[in-house]
Amino acid sequence: xxxxxxxxxxxxPTRRQLAAIECLRELQRELYNAALEERRGSxxxxxxxxxxxxxxxxxxxxxxxxxxxxxxxxxxxxxxxMRLDRAFxxxxxxxxxxxKPGFPRFKGPGSFVSLQWNDTKGxxxxxxxxxxxxxGIGKVKVHLHRCIKGTPKTITIRREGKRxxxxxxxxxxxxxxxxxxxxxxxxxxxVGCLVATSDGQLIEGPQFGKRxxxxxxxxxxxxxxxxxxxxxxxxxxxxxxxxxxxxxxAVGTSPTRCRAGW
Length: 262
What we know:
Layout: E1 2-12, H1 15-46, H2 52-57, H3 59-65, H4 75-96, E2 114-117, E3 123-126, E4 131-134, E5 138-143, E6 151-160, E7 163-174, E8 187-189, E9 195-197, E10 202-203, H5 208-220, H6 247-250, H7 254-261
Antiparallel strand pairs: 1-5, 1-7, 2-6, 3-4, 4-5, 6-7, 8-9, 9-10
């Protein structure tokens, strides 16, 4: 029995590679918005729908107009168009179900944070050296903290905070069955107590939100009163500590990552 599994690792690019990833992300954002505008305009003026395959055929013509967009390979461009196509599929599905439609929106600089390679072209992983080769970017260092099982088929690079993470979707992952113990236990999920087992054991929740809120209150206490803030229009000196100084350990993405790995 085989199954699929996702593996998530931290990318550690150099400054040049980081600038290239940022450039690629901006180019794909422009491609996403242009493809969305084409679909909207085609239906508004000509009453004609544009499919994913129609837009992928136009990528060959894009090389003469915008060669910088295809400098990183055509696979990542197809992933962006597929992302838009899935957004429209969700829109039509919600319309048919009578739910709030939620028409696909244009992406701003801060909302387009992921890149997708939907097949094995345009990238290659060297597990021995711990490098991920990306077309147009180079060999990026990957923190492989565990072994990858199965065959990697697609990858997704996503920005979280100031860091980039890569997710490998692997297929043909062998199932690992646990040895039989001959015991059975009942588990009840509650509110006051996270888990209660049939043998009387109570497991409290980690409460990452409360711990983060306490850290934020501590950080906010270092910010001076509004009346004490100088109105000279100059940048505060190094002795001033803004309220956001404790944000990563207080609320930010830290509780989210903690809950995902707990």
